[in-house]
Amino acid sequence: MSAIYDRVALIGLGLIAGSMARAMREKGLAREIVGHARSAETRATAAEIGLVDRVFETAAEAVAGADLVVLAVPVGAMGDVAAEIAPHLAPGATVTDVGSVKQAVVQAVAPHLPDGVHFIPGHPLAGTEHSGPRSGFASLFQNRWWLFTPTEGCDPLALERLQDLVRRFGAKTERMDAAHHDLVLAVTSHTPHLIAYTMVGVADHLKRVTESEVVEYSAAGFRDFTRIAASDPTMWRDVFLQNKDAVLDILGRFTEELFVLQRAIRMGDGQHLFDYFTRTRAIRRGIIEAGQDTAAPDFGRSQPGPGEG
Ligand code: NAP
């Protein structure tokens, strides 16, 4: 298979960048892959396991001569990284990001980038609760969506080339407006994460149930919550701070629904509960039919998990 880019620079060497590096290697999609991470420890690990061909101490050095630059750092760090690399980008290079929030990233990154550099914001709907340079794997993006939110005037050839890359990872691509992306993700990912964090927090505070009972008798629902609530704290702090409006909107709606269900339980309105759960069951069926999860009893959680973030 022929290479799509000559030199790809990965800024941030965690789960997503590491999975991209492995997928590019496996399929020969880049002639050279270079990278940078903030800490000396992560850079040393990346070099030791050969995650990329060369590791640089600074992001500025890493992006020099790259025809694709991928920003794979927490969304709150994107702006500073963009400011640092901007003077060092090669003319005609494409810069993309993999951040879980799009409007805030566009606002933070776009003003720094020079004319002649193509900025194409993106977001793979794929992840696990693991992070760091050792956590990635080449098949992470298989059959997952990779959403792009190109701004007006985006170069169609640069976009097609980038979409071609991620399709070769096995991903499906779609373009949408950044504000719409943020609302969709607030519903499908960000608010559910917040609910999981809250539920695990509730169990933690409930001293009448001992810690050993929570662990010992952990049933499927709670177990799934704990898996989600084990996700990287930095990444998720940034997601909520950067997608504030959409998350608060969905959280408001969630709270209203919760009160309705709470009232139905208090009033013994079984019909309401039954009808509600019948509707939600159909949504679950739709997700399985769309190939976005498995109907296996453990939800396939022994396999790499479906899209997070
Ligand atoms: P991760 O495994 O925690 O890796 C983050 C990487 O960014 C680390 O290598 C870290 O370096 C580096 N980094 C942090 N701040 C930096 C800075 N200021 N300058 C340079 N490097 C910096 O995270 P991830 O899961 O790959 O997430 C990366 C991005 O992908 C985030 O924007 C996230 O929203 C998005 N995303 C995540 C998922 C998911 O489920 N995990 C899914 C889709 C999209 P050190 O190790 O040295 O700190």
UniProtKB/TrEMBL annotation:
Where does this protein act, in terms of pathway?
Amino-acid biosynthesis; L-tyrosine biosynthesis; (4-hydroxyphenyl)pyruvate from prephenate (NAD(+) route): step 1/1
Is Oxidoreductase among this UniProt entry's keywords? Answer: yes
Q: Name any one GO molecular function.
A: prephenate dehydrogenase (NAD+) activity
Q: Identify the InterPro entries for this entry.
A: 6-PGluconate_DH-like_C_sf, NAD(P)-bd_dom_sf, PDH_C, PDH_N, Preph/Arog_dehydrog, Prephen_DH
According to the lineage, what is the superkingdom?
Bacteria
| Limits of the Prephenate/arogenate dehydrogenase domain | 6-295
Q: Which Pfam families match?
A: PDH_C, PDH_N
Instruction: Name a single GO biological process.
Output: tyrosine biosynthetic process
Q: Spell out the reaction equation it catalyses.
A: prephenate + NAD(+) = 3-(4-hydroxyphenyl)pyruvate + CO2 + NADH
- Which enzyme class? oxidoreductase
What EC designation does it have?
1.3.1.12
Q: Does the keyword DNA repair apply?
A: no
Q: Which UniProt keywords apply?
A: Amino-acid biosynthesis, Aromatic amino acid biosynthesis, NAD, Oxidoreductase, Tyrosine biosynthesis
Give the record's family classification: Belongs to the prephenate/arogenate dehydrogenase family.
User: What protein does this entry describe?
Assistant: prephenate dehydrogenase
Which organism was this protein described from? Paracoccus yeei
